[in-house]
Amino acid sequence: MITLQGHQHWVLSVCPVMVVGRQLLASGGGGGTVRLWHPAIGEQLATFHGHRGRVLSVCPVKVAGRELVASGDIGGTVRLWDPADGQQLATVQAHGGVWCVCPVMVAGRQLLASGGEDRTVRLWDPANGEQLATLHGHRGRVLSVCPVMVAGRQLLASGADDGTARLWDLATSEQVATLNTDQGWVVSVCPVTVAGRELLASGGSDGTVRLWDPANGVEPATVQADRDAVWYMCPVTVAGRELLASMAATARCGSGTQPTENSCPTSATSRAGFSARARSPSKAGSCWRTAPLRAPRGSGTPSTANNSPAFRAT
């Protein structure tokens, strides 16, 4: 096992990125930096400065054949970096707080989607920083976004602290479906392939992972993955099988408050050992780590009560 050391605060997001033919790793952290690593040898290759707040999300995105790194911070900016030389290529102001970014294909072009504090999903052209669309519908902060294939079309899925996951057709900027998950906050979403079908996994603040057929909203499986919020999920292939890895967040720094590096009791961070497990998507695994967790403005703890239908096409 290789440990990558360099961040002085929580590591809040990681993603792979290809740089001059090498598979490297980018990470974003609580100190406001984006770092580039050689994962095979554990070497830190570069540190990108510019963010003025916690970097909550990083992802790769292609522009003119080059793979760049996009990063979003709690202060509301999305920044685009060239990992080959560390140059910051673009800065856009978005959301009032950017919780998530991901690449998505629209009409043959790779664009950048983001979700954030203002309850919207936004679509950007990473080549010039132009905002192409703003998608309204969520009634809470948008905490996660991911692409998902439905009937041969790539749609965008989003999860929010309003308890829903939503599907969007980015070619038309229309919301096509709402999944009322009954999970409290939907803090993570990701695609996973099961028996040749691409399904959508949603991770909730109630510690469950649920699988959905995005074509019809059927929920084929629910797993109690942990007792804390499932903030991170990703598919992983092991011995030819696609499994689903999940990571739960333990942040106990007072009821509904935002932890800081000085506000957490020792017991909060001492529980944050890493013991990742990956299982079949019908038996999702979990592991421990710390991550920011706070109630929406003007509300208490997330409600898991939901009397709406489980799936609504819009």
What features would you describe in this structure?
The model is unreliable at 251-279 and 282-314 (pLDDT under 50). A hairpin with a 4-residue loop joins β10 (109-116) and β11. Helices cover 2% and strands 54% of the residues. The chain is mainly β. The longest helix has 5 residues, at 266-270. 46% of the residues are buried.
Order of helical and strand elements: EEEEEEEEEEEEEEEEEEEEEEHEEE
The assigned structural class equals mainly beta
DSSP helical segment count:
1
Can you summarize the main beta sheet? 5 strands, antiparallel
Physical arrangement of strands within the biggest beta sheet: 13-14-15-16-25
Percentage of residues in helical conformation: under 10%
Please count the beta strands (DSSP E, at least 2 residues each): 25
Low-confidence stretches: 251-279, 282-314
The shape, in one word, is globular
Average pLDDT level: 80
Strand content: over 45%
Q: Alpha-carbon distance between the termini?
A: 47 Å
The value of Rg in angstroms is 18 Å
